[in-house]
Design brief:
The chain is an alpha+beta fold. It contains seven helices and four strands, in the order E-H-H-E-H-H-E-H-H-E-H. It has a single domain, classed as Nucleoside diphosphate kinase-like domain (Alpha-Beta Plaits, 2-Layer Sandwich), CATH 3.30.70. It is 37% helix and 16% strand. The chain has a four-stranded antiparallel sheet. The mean pLDDT is 96. Bound molecules: guanosine-5'-diphosphate. Guanosine-5'-diphosphate (GDP) binds next to helix 4.
Length: 147
Amino acid sequence: MAGTFTFTIIKPGAVTNEHIGPILNEINKGGFHISAMKMIKLRTTQAQNFYAIHKEKAFYDALIKFMTSGPIVVAILEKENAVEEYRKLIGSTDPAKAEEGTIRKLFAQSMQQNAVHGSDSDCNAAIESTFFFSKSERFSIFDRREF
Ligand code: GDP
């Protein structure tokens, strides 16, 4: 069975451009419930750990620099089949290829500054959510209990 939550980051460029509110609006319009949320600034080691899978890529250093360049908003989002549904809502990694109406089409500036992150599997949604939130900071929409 598909999972009921995913993890997202509103990236530095989108925060700087005052897109937090409009992006959260798209998230709510898409039928997602916000189960956890906070604004933070990543330390370099945190960003390196979060993007460790891309360590060998040419864009890795630039990605780390960008992701630590300013505050971000991290959140856990709940919906049936959340990972797949949210990937659909945000669109392709490259905003030039993102479908009309998707969050990246609306708010991304470039491949690197592509407005938001969304988990790519239920397993990563769980890992990434735990990376940023303790149990007492997460509240399931289904009964507003910790989960
Ligand atoms: P995502 O799951 O759609 O965010 O994509 P990936 O996990 O493949 O990549 C992580 C992040 O690295 C993306 O959101 C982009 O910000 C960045 N990225 C990925 N591919 C490239 C690339 O070819 N060039 C640059 N500059 N950044 C990239």
